[in-house]
What we know:
The chain is of the alpha/beta class. The protein contains 6 helices and 17 strands. The protein has 2 domains: 2-84, Sandwich (Immunoglobulin-like), CATH 2.60.40.1180; 97-284, Vaccinia Virus protein VP39 (Rossmann fold, 3-Layer(aba) Sandwich), CATH 3.40.50.
Amino acid sequence: MWIADNWKDYEVIDCSKGEKLERWGNYILVRPDPQVIWDTPRTQKGWRKMNGHYHRSAKGGGEWEFFDLPEQWQIHYGSLTFNLKPFSFKHTGLFPEQAANWDWFSAKIRHANRPVKVLNLFAYTGGATLAAASAGASVTHVDASKGMVTWAKENAVSSGLKDAPIRWIVDDCVKFVEREIRRGNHYDAIIMDPPSYGRGPKGEIWKIEDAIYPLVQLCEQLLTDDPLFFLINSYTTGLQPAVLSYMMNTVLRKYRGTITADEIGLPVSSNGLVLPCGASGRFER
């Protein structure tokens, strides 16, 4: 498992009874997590003195309950600064487990000894974009949500990357890739963090089981002759690491490189265990 264990401003303190107790900077949140199927005693004081609690509804969805939590606050990861705010479906605007991937590809960019162009698809609030830009890459950031791209720009400003070579694109990712192919553009590295299900800006339906393999095939056409890396993240239960590995081997086999896939996770500070948080597949030269 690849573990995001370099955080100082974030930690999973404990997890029990379908929920995780987290510290986001100076604030304690309790959020549901489907992986937490065990029932252990809740001895950590944060379970009783939280700043925010997302209650999942039996009918689907849920709602936040707040106890002295600001509308927005910041946390840091190295030189990066992220603006957080609780919003729909339990999220805060950041997936901290992805820091395991940020560290990996940032090192590859820094040691490439050449200019690196990165395409970040389903780029959300820009964690991977900012990590890549901070390491020296030029990045094309694509997300179908205008609000998410605006949030990512705010994170770039907060991280001192306002003038970094980042292209901000609000578009359906598949359609953008198809246009980039027609334009003859190429990238040294591609990152994608697709949702299990979603809709594009014009109502385009995205279902990962049906759409991910054709998209990877399209993206292969955007790679340079000597690609540096290709990263695919999945939070979908059916897309296990072995599935990501097989898919990437099928599409990227013509390139001389190594493909690995594994779970990603976050350490739990109270007991030393690791909470699984999805899977990633990595191609690297």
